[in-house]
């Protein structure tokens, strides 16, 4: 009752190996996962060390420093991501001279699991915009997500999304002066506040972007599929047992909690059977009445004497 059958566990390991190591598309009970949808770590030695991209480190700015830098000539782009359990969005806003808005981008992010996913989408879209817009003018990008900047600065990070952003930064830096900075979020910086507003609007209206699944999320999804398959097969093989009838009466309980219900039922039932042989100090046996439908137990004293 604690774990699925070994055959199912082996099937799960084979699926994980095919997807995460062999990088092949897998199908499980009619559902598919493509390796292109997963942020699989890239190989360490895909390129020579001499060709390693040297990315300029981001600078953390205060509110006053961010406002001062925004007055410099060039293209200033602010990025922001918004996430909730129900929806997710990403956006960027680009400023030209003064406070004139040169361009905006709003993106509805599907399958996002955290604010980090939306921030990655926002920064990637901003870099792609900056790569093609006025390549002769200096470019500045501002974000309030420190996690993305730390990943960019970490050479050990092999996330394909981060590697793609490094390539974009290197390409932009070849044609213009470029700088990426961290600004405090929700501190009254106009560009950051406007990007935040657009990101939340993008949760409802925006161009669709697909967030990559993390390896942890893929393993969790495969585990849920395994539990669902185990539940369905168990119901078919043990449909005539009392335990299955109790489980079927539990309407509204999620499938992943069914196994815990079964385990608790068996433990409680075993404890009651052993308790039926116990006697009190007066030598009378303790009888037990068991109501199967509601899992309600009542302790009765019987007049039977211990022999």
From TrEMBL:
- Pfam families documented for this protein: RNase_H (PF00075)
Entries under Gene3D superfamilies matching the protein: Ribonuclease H-like superfamily/Ribonuclease H (3.30.420.10)
Q: PROSITE patterns, per this entry?
A: RNASE_H_1
Question: Can you provide one Gene Ontology molecular function annotated for this UniProt record?
Answer: nucleic acid binding
Q: Which residues form the RNase H type-1 domain?
A: 71-204
What name does the UniProt record give this protein? RNase H type-1 domain-containing protein
User: Native species of this protein?
Assistant: Rhipicephalus microplus
């Amino acid at each position: 009752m604690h774990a699925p059958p070994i055959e199912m566990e082996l099937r799960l390991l084979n699926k994980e190996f095919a997807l995460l190591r062999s990088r092949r598309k897998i199908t499980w009970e009619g559902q598919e996962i493509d390796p292109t949808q997963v942020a699989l770590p890239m190989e360490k030695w895909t390129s020579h060390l001499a060709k390693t991209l040297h990315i300029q480190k981001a600078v953390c700015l205060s509110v006053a420093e961010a406002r001062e830098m925004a007055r410099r000539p060039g293209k200033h782009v602010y990025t922001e991501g918004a996430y909730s359990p129900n929806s997710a969005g990403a956006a960027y806003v680009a400023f030209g001279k003064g406070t004139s808005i040169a361009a905006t981008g709003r993106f509805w992010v599907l399958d996002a699991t955290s604010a980090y996913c939306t921030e990655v989408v926002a920064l990637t879209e901003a870099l792609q915009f900056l790569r093609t817009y006025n390549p002769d003018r200096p470019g500045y990008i501002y974000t309030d997500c420190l996690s993305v900047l730390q990943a960019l600065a970490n050479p050990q990070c092999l996330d394909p999304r981060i590697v793609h952003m490094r390539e974009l930064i290197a390409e932009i830096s070849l044609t213009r002066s470029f700088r990426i900075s961290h600004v405090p979020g929700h501190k009254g910086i106009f560009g950051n506040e406007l990007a935040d507003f657009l990101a939340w609007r993008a949760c409802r209206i925006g161009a669709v972007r697909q967030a990559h699944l993390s390896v942890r999320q893929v393993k969790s999804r495969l585990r849920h599929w395994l539990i669902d398959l185990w539940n369905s097969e168990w119901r078919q093989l043990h449909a005539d047992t009392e335990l299955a009838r109790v489980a079927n009466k539990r309407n509204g309980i999620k499938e992943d909690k069914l196994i815990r219900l079964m385990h608790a039922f068996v433990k409680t039932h075993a404890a009651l059977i052993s308790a039926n042989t116990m006697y009190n100090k007066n030598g009378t046996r303790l009888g037990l009445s068991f109501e199967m439908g509601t899992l309600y137990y009542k302790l009765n004293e019987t007049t039977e004497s211990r022999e």
